Amino acid sequence: MAHPVEPEFRGARRRLVEQLQDGGVRDLSVLRAIDQVPRHLFVPPAMRHRAYEDSSLPIGGGQTISQPSVHARALELLQLTGRERVLEIGTGSAYQTALLAALAAQVFTVERNRDLLDRARPLLQQLDVRNVSFSFADGTLGWREYAPYDGIVVSAGAPHVPPSLADQLAEGGRLLIPLGTREEQMLTVCTRRGTQLDFRDIVPVRFVPLIGAGGWPS
Ligand code: SAH
User: Fold this and answer.
1) Is residue 179 part of a domain?
2) Radius of gyration (Cα) for the chain, nearest Å?
3) Is residue 218 part of a domain?
4) How many angstroms separate the CA atoms of 84 and 107, rounded?
5) What residue numbers bound the domain in which 30 lies?
């Protein structure tokens, strides 16, 4: 990935990667992706000095970019090899989109907030990320045209698994979704086994609500 050489951020990013490694992140491809993607470009300028702290940060419109350790955990759970097609619901800052683009073959990302999408698209272009397709839509309905997906990541908290997302998951594919109330959720991995989904609880999380036909009312 081509990006401006900014030594002060590179050192901070390296320290974040070491911190994640100390915290138990083992997947080297995930650590490498975090080492490559300039997170400071995905947060508002006033937040840049905090871009390599392991914390979530506001990105505008009441939305937040998740904590790097949460992204790392989620990406490890997807077990990507570089050959997969992945659907992401909630582009937000597109930081996770850039990480997914480094780890999978193709990424399809859906966002319902036009302003965020209008910022995300040129940023990924600027970083020369070419394997991402964007959609301005209600992601609770998935993106039927390119289904099925080997992985689906939902970046907002849902009351239940939106049926369209379950339908668009490939056999053996993994769907990561925070399930619970509007305030608190359990990050859950759902794996497709024939007509069933296997559910595994991972860790309590707090995501902004998934708003849409298959999520919460706005
Ligand atoms: N992974 C992003 C997280 C952004 S916060 C990041 O790290 O920056 C969650 C995002 O989900 C918000 O941008 C919000 O607008 C979006 N969202 C909520 N409901 C949605 C829906 N039904 N379809 C698409 N995007 C949705």
Assistant:
1) yes
2) 16
3) no
4) 8
5) 7-205
In the numeric block, which tokens belong to residue 160? 């239940």
Residue 91 alpha carbon to ligand 1 centre in Å: 5
More confident residue, 137 or 59: 137
Nearest partner of 80 among 186, 176, 177, 202, judged by Cα? 176
Q: Which of 93, 113, 118, 164 to mutate to test the pocket of ligand 1 (most atoms within 8 A of CB)?
A: 113
Q: 214 lies in a domain?
A: no
Give yes or no for a contact between 185 and 209, defined as CB atoms under 8 angstroms apart: no
In the chain, the number of structural domains is 1
pLDDT the model gives residue 61 = 86
Predicted confidence (pLDDT) per residue in 141-189, tens digit? 999 999 999 999 999 999 999 999 999 999 999 999 999 999 999 999 9
Whether 3 contacts 38, CB under 8 Å: yes
CATH of the domain at 18: 3.40.50.150
- Residue 174 Cα to ligand 1 midpoint, Å, equals 19
Residue nearest to atom 16 of ligand 1 (CA): 90
Active site residues: 66
pTM higher than 0.90: yes
Flag whether 1 is in a domain.
no
**Alpha-carbon distance 12 to 109, whole Å?**
28
How far is the centre of ligand 1, averaged over its atoms, from the C-alpha of 63 (Å)?
Answer: 7
| Residue 102 neighbours by CB under 8 Å, 6+ apart | 1, 29, 32, 33, 36, 37
pLDDT, average across residues 77-104: 97
